[in-house]
Write a structure and sequence with these properties.
Layout (H helix, E strand, L loop, with lengths): L4 E8 L7 H4 L5 H13 L3 H14 L4 H13 L3 H14 L6 H12 L3 H14 L4 H23 L22 E7 L2 E6 L20 E8 L2 E7 L9 E8 L5 E8 L1
Parallel strand pairs: 1-7
Antiparallel strand pairs: 2-3, 3-4, 4-5, 6-7
Helix pairs in contact: 2-3, 3-4, 4-5, 5-6, 6-7, 7-8
Length: about 260
């Protein structure tokens, strides 16, 4: 194996995720919200969604919670539900959560509803005119509207695209991350090698299982996992993500975070 100069980006953190349905039985809304923030910060957006969903059911008039659910579902790429929550946040308090209008437009754009997305972006632009948000969102709004206009033009001349779902030796129960091609027939990626979803008990000291760096190789027309990436990259109880090589191919950058 060729030698690499490895650059580590290391963040220490304790991940405290738990099965939401079990945890929420014994906690009040304030405690649930506190756990929701921690699980989101730890990167477990799906548990955070469950916690915030519970808060929203108990306090259906809080625009803040609806906006947060919109953000989380957007991050999870659940665009129809994200659109719903951004709409509810905006309609609940248009002044305080005017930004929900921008993100409602963004979710429409991501679903291919370009004309209605443009309407939201334009309305948002009018509503923030003269405010502190105008300068912050000016370029963003223009870029999103330009993107909608381009998409509408491209729809008349669609590209032929074939989407291939990779082999189950690569795709597991938990989300894989950070695919990075090394050559045309090999790529790196991060994964939790488990076939079942699981939660961590919030009230014990169990260390959250760590994503490690793996290599996949293409054989014929299919991709297969070829095990852990060799070298001084992986280590116990440490998440290893986002591999990248410099143009010369002799320096490897990776992100590490202690579990």
């Amino acid at each position: 194996m060729r030698p690499y100069l490895i650059v580590y980006i290391l963040i220490l953190s304790k991940i405290i995720s738990a099965q939401p349905s079990e945890t929420m039985k014994y906690l009040n809304p304030w405690q649930i919200k506190n756990i929701a923030k921690k699980t989101e910060k730890a990167g477990d957006i799906y548990s955070a969604i469950e916690y915030y969903e519970d808060i929203n059911k108990k306090n259906p008039t809080k625009a803040e919670i609806k906006y947060k659910l919109g953000e989380l579902h957007l991050a999870a790429r659940n665009y129809p539900v994200a659109q719903q929550y951004f709409n509810e946040a905006f309609e609940t308090d248009k002044e305080a959560f005017v930004e929900a209008l921008f993100y409602r437009g963004l979710t429409k754009k991501k679903q291919g509803d370009y004309n209605n997305a443009k309407e939201d972006f334009n309305l948002f632009s009018k509503m923030i005119k003269g405010s502190k948000l105008q300068e912050q969102y000016k370029k963003k709004v223009k870029n999103e509207i330009d993107g909608c206009n381009l998409a509408l033009k491209l729809k008349d001349n669609p590209l032929n695209v074939f989407i291939l779902h990779l082999d189950t030796s690569i795709n597991k129960a938990h989300a894989e991350a950070s695919p990075f091609p090394i050559t045309g027939n090999s790529m790196l990626y991060s994964s939790l090698k488990t076939d079942k979803l699981f939660y961590i008990n919030l009230y014990n000291d169990t260390i959250f299982p760590s994503r490690q760096l793996y290599i996949a190789r293409k054989k014929g027309e299919k991709w297969f996992s070829d095990g852990l990436f060799e070298g001084p990259f992986n280590e116990p109880n440490t998440n290893v993500l986002n591999p990248a090589l410099n143009p010369s191919g002799n320096r490897c950058y990776i992100f590490k975070r202690k579990s």
